[in-house]
Structures are given as C-alpha cells and as structure tokens.
C-alpha cells in the first residue's frame, strides 16, 4: 500500500508519515521544504524498511500538483492525505492583509483540489480492473465547524474543505473510494508559529495552560480511518483537547 502525504515536512503531516511507515505503507512525501522531507525519508527507510520518495511541492502551484505523480515516479496511490495548509494572522477581517487571504485560500482550498484531481482520477481509472479500495483523507479543522472571531478567512477555507469532502464522497460513492474529513481543535505543531510569522511568544500563548493535542494524536486517527474494515467509512471525525470544549471555550489552568 502506498500513501501520499502533503505537508509532510512538519507537524501532522510528518506524524502521519511516521505512523503510516510504522504500518508498512510505502510513502510519497510532499512539501516545499524538501530538505526536511529527504531527512525524514531516510529515517523512515532505515527504521521500517519501506520505500519513501520525497517530492518538492507547493500545493498552490497547479502545474506542480499536476506533475506530482510523474515527478514521484508514477506511484500507484492507495491513500492520499491532503494535509498541507496554514493560517496567517488573527485579526478582525477589515484589518486583514489580503495577501494572507490569497495564501490561505490558495493552499487550503485550491491546493486540496489541485492535488486531489490527478490522484482521484488515477484511483477511478484503477477501478476498471475491478473494485480497488482507496482512500482520501482531508485535514479540515474545528475552525470549519464554527467560525471564531479574528479567523474568518482561515475558518472559511476549512468550511470549504468540509464541503469539498462531502461533495467528493458523493461523487465517488459508486467506487470503493472512501473520503474522510478530520477536524482537529488545537494541536501543538508549527501551525501557530506560521500563523504569527515566527512570533514565538504569541505562538506559545495559544497553548498556555492547556494540554493540547499532539500531531501523533491526529496521525492515530488517520491510521484508524485508513485501516478500518473496508465496509467502514469514517466520514468525519472532530477531535479536541480535553481542555477545549469547542472553538470558543477553552479551560486554561492558572
Ligand atoms: P505545520 O506544523 O505548520 O505544518 C504544515 C505543513 O503544511 C508543513 O509541512 C508545510 O510544509 C505544509 N505546507 C504549508 N503550505 C504549503 C504549500 N503551499 N505547499 C505545500 N505544503 C505546504 O501545521 P500543522 O498543524 O501540522 O497543520 C497541518 C494541517 O492541519 C493544516 O491543513 C492545518 O490547517 C490543519 N489543522 C491544524 C490544527 C492545529 O491546531 N495545528 C488544527 C486543525 C487543523 P512546507 O512549509 O515545507 O511546504
């Protein structure tokens, strides 16, 4: 079995790569920071003896996404994890920098589409040889469940990921192609450092006084969904840290 993971150079994507390699999946790892991917690939090959290919990919670049499979050596992809994504800024919408809107919409919405298209078409083409189970896992967010103040555009992109997942699930329902949406609350990764452009203090404050989810917690859910019996389709999983009730209510230890 081969899994393609986008955004595998950090956080949840890296954790998915580790968890899937430990279950003997061959991997195609994609992200912009290919040096990190190469290092991870080498580590996973040594640890688990699996085949791992690292490919440079900016998901906002349609041409790069279209050539991804070819550049990865034409792997047959059984599992796609659309994980690459980001938030920029946390201010009221009228004060947002519109360049941040472009970046979030291009990566989180259009990026999912660009990457999914060639992979799902390959998955469908394989069905001509008989029913062939495959799986697409999309990383949405609790932000897509309910918009929170100062995050309107990031929240909108993740609501779009939910709609794309729900729509795609229906469009491929005649095949054994499962579509799973995972919607985490606060996970401590590089996410907040990226959101606050390297402001460590602001990034750390997000997780102050709580025991946040880890990237490995989310990778466990991905593994659970993709290894479930083939009759079982996990359509949607929403998960929060125990200290987080929803997007608005977080208990912080003093
Ligand atoms: P992270 O540690 O910052 O990792 C983000 C990954 O996405 C990196 O590997 C990054 O790789 C990749 N990426 C970003 N823009 C990209 C682009 N244009 N092209 C290719 N890859 C790109 O953040 P994370 O928490 O693991 O986030 C992973 C996913 O989970 C995101 O979709 C995020 O929205 C979602 N999520 C996160 C949380 C949270 O609290 N952390 C909660 C809910 C959902 P390069 O920079 O090397 O390209």
Structure description:
With 254 residues, the protein is of the alpha/beta class. It has one domain: NAD(P)-binding Rossmann-like Domain (Rossmann fold, 3-Layer(aba) Sandwich), CATH 3.40.50. Helix content is 43%, strand content 15%. It is built from nine helices and seven strands, in the order E-H-E-H-E-H-H-E-H-E-H-E-H-H-H-E. Strands 3-2-1-4-5-6-7 form a seven-stranded parallel β-sheet, sandwiched between helices. Helix 1 packs parallel to helix 2, helix 1 crosses helix 9 and helix 5 packs parallel to helix 6. The longest helix has 29 residues. The radius of gyration is 18 Å and the shape is globular. 40% of the residues are buried. The protein binds NADP nicotinamide-adenine-dinucleotide phosphate. The site of NADP nicotinamide-adenine-dinucleotide phosphate has 29 residues, from helix 1 and helix 7. NADP nicotinamide-adenine-dinucleotide phosphate (NAP) binds next to helix 1 and helix 7.
Task: Kindly state the number of beta strands.
Answer: 7
- At CATH level 3, the topology is Rossmann fold
User: For the terminal residues, how far apart are their CA atoms?
Assistant: 47 Å
SSE arrangement, N to C: EHEHEHHEHEHEHHHE
Mean pLDDT: 98
Please tell me the total number of domains.
Answer: 1
Shape: globular
The fourth-level CATH homologous superfamily is NAD(P)-binding Rossmann-like Domain
Q: Can you tell me the CATH architecture?
A: 3-Layer(aba) Sandwich
The portion of residues forming beta strands comes to 5-15%
Order of strands across the widest beta sheet?
3-2-1-4-5-6-7
Q: Biggest sheet, open or closed, and with what strands and sense?
A: 7 strands, parallel
Level of helix content? 40-55%
CATH class: Alpha Beta
């Amino acid at each position: 079995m081969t899994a393609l993971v986008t955004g595998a150079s950090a956080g949840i994507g890296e954790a998915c790569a580790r968890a899937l390699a430990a279950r003997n999946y061959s991997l195609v790892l994609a992200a912009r920071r290919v040096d990190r991917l190469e290092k991870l690939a080498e580590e996973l090959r040594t640890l688990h003896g699996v085949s791992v290919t690292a490919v440079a990919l900016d998901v906002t670049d349609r041409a790069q996404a279209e050539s991804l499979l070819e550049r990865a050596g034409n792997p047959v992809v059984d599992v796609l994890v659309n994980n690459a994504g980001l938030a920029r800024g946390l201010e009221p919408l009228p004060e947002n920098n519109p360049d941040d809107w472009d970046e979030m919409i291009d990566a989180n919405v259009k990026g999912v589409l660009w990457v999914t298209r060639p992979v799902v078409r390959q998955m469908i083409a394989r069905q001509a040889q008989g029913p062939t189970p495959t799986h697409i896992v999309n990383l949405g967010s609790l932000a897509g469940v309910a918009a929170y103040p100062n995050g309107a555009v990031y929240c909108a992109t993740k609501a779009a990921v939910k709609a794309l997942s729900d729509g795609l699930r229906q469009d491929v329902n005649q095949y054994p192609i499962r579509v799973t949406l995972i919607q985490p609350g606060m996970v401590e990764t590089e996410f907040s450092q990226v959101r606050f452009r390297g402001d460590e203090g602001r990034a750390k404050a997000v997780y102050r006084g709580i025991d946040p989810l880890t990237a490995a917690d989310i990778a466990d859910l991905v593994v659970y969904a993709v290894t479930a019996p083939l009759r079982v389709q996990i359509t949607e999983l929403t998960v929060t840290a125990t200290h987080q009730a929803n997007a608005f209510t977080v208990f912080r230890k003093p």
